[in-house]
Design goal:
The protein has 977 residues and is α/β, with parallel strands linked by helices. It is 35% helix and 14% strand. The protein has 33 helices and 33 strands. The strands form eight sheets. An eight-stranded parallel β-sheet has the order 7-6-5-4-3-2-1-8. Strands 9-14-13-12-10-11 form a six-stranded mixed β-sheet, sandwiched between helices. Helix 2 packs across helix 14. The chain is elongated, with a radius of gyration of 35 Å.
Length: 977
């Protein structure tokens, strides 16, 4: 139903008003409280009261979405004139009911420079209200909080600067009104400079008319000029306007004289709740309600006693304190408001998926964006933040307080290794001293003050113990994180700290955004909405850039969450079909991880669930995650060129048939090298072997079926001084209970150098070229490949969960088993590389051997996507990135870049990507069931990790079912929604 306009509106109001009794008219001026978390008896009594007194509106408080919707529907169906439904949804409906999205407090919003975000937040809250059948939101709070001791406004205010408060209340109001929800500004004429809670007593405003007119009234004037339809009158004693010592809500001089006549406000006037002690004290039930109507208010909010209120109003009419004409006038205004805000939306509230709609994906993205943009950096000595040169830092986080900060700590760990400590403000001196001693091993302390509070009555949680502790940390880099109102920073602001961050909230998104701000996962641009003290006044706020991956919601990057959920279905189906025991998918867009989920279990026995912190054997992705960046860095430093004979870079290649190959040819797989070489088969004692090692059918010797048309002869033996299963002198561990003789290991390299070349140099994918590249990197850098990568790349990136030989270097509790090698090694490969070449080379090879997490791999891929930079450091020249990621030869000959795979564009060939991946994209796949792929056109990173080779590599369902490309297709569909 479209809103009434002009004559139709006037006609409905007139005809309705003409049919109403006096009792009905009085009832329209009353909004009663309702709670949707009570029993059926309460609901019945409330319904009886609404019907008996012809109540015009309801203001909902605590409860739940569905129960509130059902109550609303029930009462609306019984009301001849539709009820006006209201709520104090200053921070969204979740401020009152659960579960539902609750947005941040207004002080946090006051820190955001982008006021369009406030409009969008008002719009989102309006959408919530509409979904729940709410017509009136008693917001925004237009009070200017200039008094830190204010017990009732505080963080409900946008700040202490009138211009900033005015601008933000305007944006909030406009956003709310865009959804056809009535905005009601409060608390007129300004509740920001009080130290008394009007719920319990009558606050006194001591300012002059001139001061109130220029400061407190400033936001209200702007709102009135913009046409805000409602205002709430506060219970305040304002003697500069009315010397009779009565609340503003009962003062005709203020409601009529100031508000109506001087400021020309002609919308609806609501009282603040009429059960508050600030207005009821010294008055009998109903008495204040009459005074409020006489003063000029239109609607009585939450009367203390409805029966007494109605009786007192009717008595006042008889005594001509009120007139029926006054009642008619007020009732007309209420009906006119209902024509605009109620009647067009008087259908029953739809309860289907109501909870989900109140916390929609777009609302979640907006929520996170508000927290991120509010983060305020008020001190940053020597530009410490965002942290750079991670390889020089030994970081510890310290949670001071009794509230847990797990989300903060978890987010810190996405960026760098971080030890976590916590201590209570009530801890003994001995415990404090022990803590200081433990922190002596660290040079960077991230202190999270979870003891901080928003209440002035609790001194904002400030303690001398924290002051003493910070002084004990002098000489270290100290980053102080304050998750509450800035007022609580006053005691600490002079302490020896390098950086101070105010996040305004301990909520989970605030914790996450604070941690991201420290490492540059988000830009920091907030400013203080209120002053800490003289040295840090309102408006203070330093800016820092985004230099690393951030973590956000899909909608914040223009992607559709519902579409991305289809990835879940693909992964779960793959696991059900036993294509892999488990897997993980990570998607990053525009520098933000927007999807990161783990599925299934470590192995098919389902004993251990996968998590997003799991570490995988990434097989051939090692080529672009370790070997290739090393080659590119050496290329930038002019240690190597692409087209010179490789014998110039590796002495061992001289006088071999490979000496004139080039690095370009190795990277393009056009060097004429064979695809691979079986070192295991070379070690078999063929003289003692009966039959063949593999056959296509079952025979008397080949009795173990590996897959269709592949049978193994399990009775082979290794030659002496090659491999054994017991170890001994001169034997080195390859995997559990499997050893290689050191002389045979030495000979492996010679075997590679002496392998025959193919008769042509056409494209043939080969692992051997990257084995040779490892030698070149090591010889030119004079450093083993694993150490070179760790020192010059992984540690600086903060990729501390990335290493060769996971069983020795990483947390084995997080490592996913890759294989049960029942053929050659006779052991489970858990933390030991699956690739046989890498295994026999000590777990470190140029073609395979790297273990990592999806998060770390995303950092590595970000270096390429960021044209060679990450974390404020340049690793690779941008021109080198451009060169290596481009296709080098005609597509019919070779689709690849230098080291990178590329999409297949020829229609008769299969490739590693879906058809939607642009030809500019690049990446690599891995034999264990992995892919890492960059799309620079769309600033997209796609990572899929699995152990599809568990229990054995002959399970190719994941490949045949195109699981990796199906997921990639979904990502592009989500992006194009």
């Amino acid at each position: 139903m479209a809103p009434f306009t002009g004559r139709a509106q006037s006609s409905w109001v007139d005809s309705t008003l003409n049919t109403m009794s006096l009792d009905e008219k009085i009832g329209q001026l009353i909004m009663v409280a309702a709670y949707s978390n009570k029993d059926s008896l309460y609901e019945k009594q409330l319904g009886t009261s609404i019907e008996k007194y012809h109540i015009g509106g309801i203001i909902f408080f605590q409860g739940g979405p569905k129960s509130q919707a059902l109550m609303t529907n029930k009462y609306q169906q019984k009301s001849r004139i539709p009820l006006m439904i209201g709520m104090d949804a200053e921070n969204g409906v979740g401020w009152r009911i659960k579960p539902a999205m609750e947005f941040p407090n207004q002080t946090l919003l006051g820190a955001i420079r982008d006021t369009n975000l406030i409009y969008r937040l008002g719009e989102a809250i309006g959408q919530q209200c509409r979904a729940l059948g709410i017509h009136v939101n008693f917001a925004p709070v237009a009070d200017i909080n200039v008094n830190p001791k204010n017990p009732v406004i505080g963080i409900r205010s946008f700040g202490e600067k009138k211009e900033e408060v005015g601008n933000r209340t305007l944006q909030y109001m406009r956003g709310l009104q865009s959804q056809h929800v009535m905005a009601v500004a409060k608390h007129f004429p300004g509740h920001g400079d009080t130290d008394t809670d009007s719920h319990f007593a009558l606050p006194l405003i001591r300012h002059s008319v001139a001061r109130i007119d220029t400061v407190e009234l400033y936001p209200f004037k702007q709102l009135f000029e913009a046409g805000i339809p409602g205002v709430m009158i506060a219970h305040l004693n304002v003697p500069s306007y009315d010397t009779t010592n009565i609340p503003a809500s009962l003062s005709k001089r203020i409601v009529t004289g100031l508000l109506r006549e001087k400021l020309h406000f002609d919308g609806l006037c609501f009282t603040d709740a009429m059960n508050m002690k600030g207005v009821t004290k010294g008055r009998t039930p109903g008495e204040a309600d009459v005074e409020a109507l006489v003063a000029g208010n239109d609607i009585l909010l939450f009367p203390e006693n409805v029966e007494a209120t109605v009786k007192k109003i009717k008595s006042a009419i008889r005594k001509e304190i009120l007139t029926e004409e006054m009642i008619n006038e007020k009732c007309r205004k209420v009906l006119e408001a209902k024509v605009k805000y109620v009647l067009p939306y008087s259908t029953l509230v739809d309860t289907a998926q109501l909870t989900e709609r109140l916390s929609s994906p777009s609302a979640k993205a907006l929520l996170q964006e508000t927290y991120a943009k509010a983060i305020t950096l008020v001190k940053n000595d020597d530009l410490l933040l965002p942290l750079t040169h991670l390889d020089t830092l030994r970081i510890a986080s310290l949670n001071f307080g009794d509230r847990k900060a797990k989300e903060f700590e978890n987010m810190l760990e996405k960026y760098a290794p971080c030890a976590h400590f916590s201590i209570s403000p009530e801890a003994s001196k001995e415990k404090m001293q022990k803590l200081v001693k433990e922190l002596s091993d660290y040079n960077c302390i991230i202190l999270y003050n979870s003891a901080a509070r928003n209440s002035a009555a609790r001194q904002f949680g400030a303690t001398l113990e924290l002051t003493k502790l910070v002084k004990e940390l002098k000489g270290k880099h100290v980053i102080f994180c304050h998750p509450a109102t800035p007022y609580g920073m006053d005691m600490y602001s002079y302490l020896p700290m390098d950086a101070i961050i105010v996040s305004y909230s301990h909520d989970i998104p605030a914790q996450q955004c604070t941690a991201q701000a420290i490492f540059g996962g988000i830009t920091v641009n907030g400013k203080l909405p209120v002053s800490i003290n003289y040295f840090f006044p309102a408006g203070t706020g330093l800016s820092t850039p985004k230099i690393r991956l951030g973590y956000s919601q899909p909608e914040s990057r223009g992607m559709d969450s519902q579409t991305l959920l289809k990835i879940d279905s693909v992964c779960q189906a793959a696991i059900k079909e036993k294509a892999t025991p488990g897997c993980q998918v990570l998607v990053a867009k525009d520098g933000y991880v927007i999807y990161d989920k783990a599925f299934g279990f470590n192995t098919f026995d389902k004993k251990k669930k996968n998590t997003t912190d799991d570490i995988y054997d990434i097989a051939s992705i090692t080529k672009i995650a370790a070997t290739l960046p090393s080659v590119m860095m050496l290329y930038d430093q002019q240690y190597i060129t692409l087209d010179s004979p490789i014998a110039q870079y590796s002495y061992a290649l001289k006088n071999t048939n490979k000496q004139n190959l080039t690095i370009r040819e190795l990277l393009l797989h056009t060097a004429g090298l064979k695809a691979s070489f079986s070192y295991f088969q070379h070690a078999i004692d063929w003289e003692k072997m009966q039959g063949r090692l593999f056959t296509t059918k079952y025979t008397k010797t080949n009795t173990r079926k590996l897959r269709d048309r592949l049978y193994l002869n399990p009775n082979f033996k290794y030659r002496d001084s090659t491999f054994n299963f017991s170890g001994g002198e001169n034997y080195l561990l390859v995997s559990p209970h499997f050893y290689i003789h050191k002389h045979f290991q030495d000979s492996i390299h010679d075997l590679l150098l002496n392998t025959d070349l193919l008769p042509h140099k056409k494209y043939t994918y080969s692992d051997l070229g990257f084995v040779l590249l490892k030698d070149i990197v090591e010889e030119q850098s004079a450093t083993p490949l694993d150490i070179y990568c760790r020192k010059h790349f992984f540690k600086k990136l903060g990729a501390y969960n990335t290493a060769f030989n996971a069983h020795f270097n990483l947390d084995m509790n997080r490592v996913i088993p890759a294989n049960e090698d029942n053929i050659f090694r006779k052991s489970q490969l858990h933390g030991y590389v699956h690739d046989p070449i890498a295994a026999l080379m000590g777990g470190i090879s140029g073609n395979a051997g790297l273990f990592t997490t999806a998060n770390d791999l995303a950092k590595i891929m970000s270096v390429y996507l960021n044209n060679g930079t990450y974390g404020g450091e340049r690793f690779i020249d941008s021109a080198t990135i451009d060169l290596f990621t481009q296709t080098q030869l005609p597509l019919e000959q070779n689709r690849r870049g230098l080291g990178f795979d590329k999409p297949e564009t020829l229609p008769n060939k299969s490739g590693p990507t879906c058809k939607e991946a642009p030809c500019t994209s690049y990446g690599h796949t891995g034999f264990t069931g992995t892919i890492a792929w960059n799309d620079p056109d769309n600033q997209l990173i796609y990572i899929f990790l699995s152990n599809r080779t568990y229990p054995n590599e002959f399970n190719d369902k994941l490949i045949k079912d195109n699981i990796r490309t199906k997921i990639q297709e979904i990502i592009y569909r989500a992006m194009n929604k």
